[in-house]
Amino acid sequence: MRQRLIDLCNQRAAQIAAAEAALAAGNTADYDSAMTQIQNMNSEIDRIQNLLREQERQMANQPAPSGAEARDMAEERGAALLRGDRVTFNFAEVRRGIQNATTLATGTIVQPTGSGTDVREGHNAVVSSVVDQVYVTDLTGMGAFLEPYVIEDTKANAGKVEALAGTARAESDPKFGVAEIKPYEVNTTSFVDRNIARLSPANYYARVQAMAMRALRRKVAGLIVNGDGASSPTMFGLTNAKNKAGEAIFASQALGAAIDPTTLDDLYFAYGSSEACGANARLLLTKANLKAIGKLRGTNEKQRLFKITPDAANPNTGIISDGGLVLPYTLVSDIGDATLGYGDLMNYELGLFGEYSIRVDESVKAVERMTAILGDVFVGGNLIVDKGFVVGTIG
Fold first, then answer.
1. What pLDDT digit, counting tens, does each position of 325-368 carry?
2. What are the φ/ψ torsions at residue 227 (nearest 5 degrees)?
3. Helices (H), ranges, 106-191
4. How many CA atoms does the CB half-sphere of 242 hold within 13 Å?
5. Is a pLDDT exceeding 90 seen at residue 288?
6. I need a surface site. Which of 51, 227, 282, 330 has the fewest CB within 10 A?
7. How far is CA 87 from CA 11, 55, 78, 81, 372, in A?
């Protein structure tokens, strides 16, 4: 079924190109034929996508193994890692791992507390929650994925009956774009004292898995924001998303030389259509810019203009309010101090192209007596909604 979806998306992309060419050439018959085929494909694609989304939802909602099953799995995988074998995680496990700050396979495994084996990460263990807030899909087996979206909706025309009688009516065709999601290799490397190998296989596996998933989560968070950083990206981020034609999918907004009392208003009203404000949107910013917003004061009472309320359960997120405007926010250092972002993060699609594999290697830092935890996976991403995210520039 997934291969059928790939084939249909490729065929639809070809028909969209054919329809555009026919319209430019004034060939209405070929244009109508291509649009009819596109509409038929859309119906079938919607059915397949709904089926796949339901399968993914059921897979994602399946609870992680627990009890004896979890212990047996941990023991087996831990023994494999101790032997130097490679361990793989399927889509459901990776999704749970990168979209949850708790990356242990189960809460029933006792974590180590002995001397020389427990690693205290402190604040560095907190990774941006932007990974939790995007749309994640399984693209296993695909070479790439094409996601069409509407740039301009169909527009109706009107006029006097006597004026329009006997004349060709003006065209009111919609405009489409295609966002491409291609695989991009992500490899993670973490180091831990080799004394960790003294743990039981189950606890050893739990610790290795936690470190590998957190490293993947941290890297993917940066890719979601900025893509791969290349001049011609393979993986697009929220701040540089483009379609197949090279057109920006995100919206841009100048925010002045520095953060001031109007900055959040400018960003808020830049998102959405001319007749509606965007729903389910949140602010992405650095901690330094959050501090700058908090430092804004009134001219008379010198009181704070904005109230910042961090989420007690997740210090990476919170709410900014000024008595009327309320903006949820997520801290993400990768966006940089010169940029503020705002939009519904579900407009960004993160694809996982296959399993995530990890292995351990004691030869990389043998002199330091460190064990390397090596992870490898293919991911991809792009915005899939036109102007689905606003990139605000400061300075």
1. 889 999 999 999 999 999 999 999 999 888 889 998 888 888 88
2. 70, -160
3. 161-164
4. 12
5. yes
6. 51
7. 37, 24, 9, 7, 14
